[in-house]
Amino acid sequence: MRAVYINSVGSISSQKTFDNSQFLDEIVSYEDNIILAVDPNYKDYIAPANSRRMAKGIKMGVVASKIALKEANLDNVDAIITGTGMGCLKDSKKFLSAIIDNDEQFLTPTSFIQSTHNTVGGQIALGLKCKGYNFTYVHASVSFESAVLDAKLMLENNEASSVLVGGVDEIEEYTCTLHKLINHIKEEKVNTTDLLGSKTKGAVFSEGANFFVLSNIKQDSSYAQIVAISTYNTIKSTNITDLAGTFLKENDLDIEAIDLLVLGNNGDVTYDSFYNELSCGVFNKTQQVYYKHLCGEFNTASSFGVWLASKILKTQKLPEVTKLNDIRASNYNTILLYNQYRGENHSFTLLRKC
Fold first, then answer.
1. Residue-wise over 70-106: b if at least 16 C-beta within 10 A, else e?
2. Which one of 165, 177, 218, 349 has the fewest CB atoms closer than 10 angstroms to its CB?
């Protein structure tokens, strides 16, 4: 089987990550429990007439994909694979509200057409005139990992040479209200720079889009090699150590081979124990970073973690704001990422320097 490489990245998040010439040089901090993505100038990427008809999630996905394609020097790809947990929430709400308000009559189709989960992938394909494989995974907080797995299998078996893969989710007010009622979102506003010090239930919710051009052809500008990725549904926190060891053993590695551990801590006092089991246990002598104080929590937030790890491997620089401990690695060759959400949908991703 052929190796799979990350040849380019494109990110829209609550940080100014849309500029690939920078790497978290300027940090935006928030005092809130819901944070929005920092918008680039969408007119630079999307015609205003088209942009007006697009929900924010679609715009974020389209722009992030264009940034990734431009960096890879590609006009088109063989396949487009998208992951999203909640899809285009705002247009879904618009359509459902219109059904009620208009007594199920005289409904305009626009919101319905743009409310489906595969709208982002479809809009990207229309813009590129890409008639290749186009698939959207809706697997909650492993939606992005599912998309990457699909692309990885295609590239390893030489069924494609370049695949655009991404994760995208948007914020919607009513949905956030429901999440607050069931304590998925923190009751109090917190300073995101001190997210792990909150010691309360719930997370800081956000939105974003992170896209990558994956290929089985390595370029001089490639960021990293995707060695392996695995997902799991429900496991006990005490079993995480054994699971991590098994995952590494399957890839002929041990704990000492990991230069950097990237964790998805979101400040939820109930579920961060899964991360603590690794950070305070077998990886206590490994340098560790986290990222959800920068991008917030959403179903495809792990795609921001892959963006962060990819940039670290390519630049060999580690932003101070991401550090979880004071251990320093001499260089970054192998990075392990671990993510879960509320004790479910666990994932391990292994990246290696090209």
1. ebbebeebbbbbbbbbbbbbbbbbbbeebeeeeeeee
2. 177
Instruction: Tell whether 256 is covered by a domain.
Output: yes
For the segment 308-352, what is each residue's pLDDT rounded down to a tens digit? 999 999 999 999 999 999 999 999 999 999 999 999 999 999 999
Q: Are residues 317 and 338 in the same domain?
A: yes
pTM: 0.95
CATH of the domain at 347: 3.40.47.10
3-state secondary structure of 229: strand
Question: Could you give the CA distance from residue 353 to residue 348 in angstroms, rounded to a whole number?
Answer: 17
Domain final residue pick, 215, 238, 273: 215
Structural Rg of the chain based on CA atoms: 19
Measured distance CA(263)–CA(14) in Å, rounded: 18
Q: What is the DSSP letter of 184?
A: S
Q: Measure the CA–CA gap between 180 and 317, rounded to whole angstroms.
A: 37
Same structural domain, 196 and 155: yes
Q: Which residues, other chains included, contact 328 with Cβ-Cβ below 8 Å and sequence gap of 6+?
A: 287
